[in-house]
Amino acid sequence: MMYAAIMGYGTIGTGVAEILETSREKIAGSAGQEICLKYVLDLREFPDSPVADRIVHDFEIIEEDEQVRLVVETMGGLNPAYPFVKACLSAGKHVVTSNKALVAAHGTELLQIARDKGVNFFFEASVGGGIPIIRTLYRCLTGERIQEITGILNGTTNYILTKMDQEGASFEQALKEAQELGYAERNPEADVEGHDTCRKIAILTAMATGKEVNYEDINTEGITGKGITGITEMDFRYAREMGTSVKLLGTSRIVDGKVHARVAPMMISKENPLYGVSGVYNGILVKSDRLGVSMYYGSGAGKLPTASAVVADLIEAAQNENNNVSIGWGAERQEIADSKISECRYFVRIAGEAEEKAEMIRTELGEVQALVLDGADEFAVLTKRMTEEEFIQHAIKLDGEWQKKGEYGIRQVIRAMLED
Ligand code: HSE
Question: I need a surface site. Which of 186, 311, 326, 410 has the fewest CB within 10 A?
């Protein structure tokens, strides 16, 4: 019998307690011993819950109880999750977490403490909710050289963009609906500004390279317009005409030891396997040297999907009660290439008549595809591939010329992950 504690009885913590109870025998069979929930740490009381008799408010009860060998951290945020997790690992307890902020910010140190203490620090649920992507990377693809990971890693923004695409909703309408359905937080900043996706792609990149990734090095834009672009219904009108869609992607390409990573809304074609990932679902595309393209799809958030991943980690920790499973990354820092040198195509919306501006655009951007929508006072072009640095130079020149003539210029720019 192994005793466990859960820190944080919110949505995911509740799900973990529920699965431990309802799948007790199955879990014992897989783990090789029963996992018994001894404590649930939370500030609140839960008098009517099935764990009412196990609620504690004092972290030291868990830290000092030598019987407790497994600790689940589902509090979220860094404080007090970070000091609590560090203390548990230092006390020789295995820790399983769903907290991407914690793993992205302190994973290197926590993995090292786990190695030193001969215990495990597992975090399958921190990326892609219930989708088994972390274990896939360290177990199933361990003999592969990972060349690229690109994913729809945030269910909230994927729900919003899907509503805008399929129903013509505005960003504001789609966000409101997501909040009403509990898919988006009251303060949705971490999701819609891309910070959540940034931490997740940083963790996946570190898993792929075996080196620490500083998530702050990853150029991150969301879908609200605080970065270069804010995605609108008009963008989706063009996208539909072109047989494309716009998704918030976290992407990381590993070329000659350098990582080209970015979080941004990107235009993708129907042929891209991520095109069909709709609503709150997540999808993660991995390109590796021998397997080629593989894709992992499923529920990226939610109580039971995420708790299921936590429980799988608990079972693996129980199976490895007395040894550290070698996962994660070391202290060496992975270099992230300057985002200005990475190449892509650009979807650009421009005010005015396509014919009038065609020559200037051709001079600056070369032969480009122009698109016109019925009744619109603008047109759009799809450029050839170029670096961000080159594109910005051309765009500044074009916009400057138009402004000199008192004309409006570029209205929107979206990176396009499309073949030439
Ligand atoms: N807010 C996150 C999402 C939750 O929408 O994907 C899971 O990390």
Answer: 186
Q: Quick: pLDDT tens for 195-209.
A: 999 999 999 999 999
0.85 exceeded by the pTM?
yes
pLDDT of 360 > 50? The answer is yes
Domains of the chain: which residue ranges? Answer: 2-129+304-319, 142-297, 340-417
Q: What is the CATH number of domain 2-129+304-319?
A: 3.40.50.720
Class of domain 340-417 as given by CATH? alpha beta
Average pLDDT, the chain: 95
Fold observed for domain 142-297: Dihydrodipicolinate Reductase; domain 2 (3.30.360)
Structure tokens that stand for 261 in this block:
């990573």
Q: Which residue owns the Cα nearest ligand 1 atom 6?
A: 154
> How many CA atoms are closer than 13 Å to the CA of 183, on its beta-carbon side?
21
Q: With pLDDT > 90 as the criterion, what percentage of the chain qualifies?
A: 90
Å from CA of 122 to ligand 1 middle: 18
Using the atom order of ligand 1, give the atom closest to the CA of residue 306: 7
Strand partners, 405: none
Which residue owns the Cα nearest ligand 1 atom 4? 301
Atom of ligand 1 nearest to the CA of 301: 7
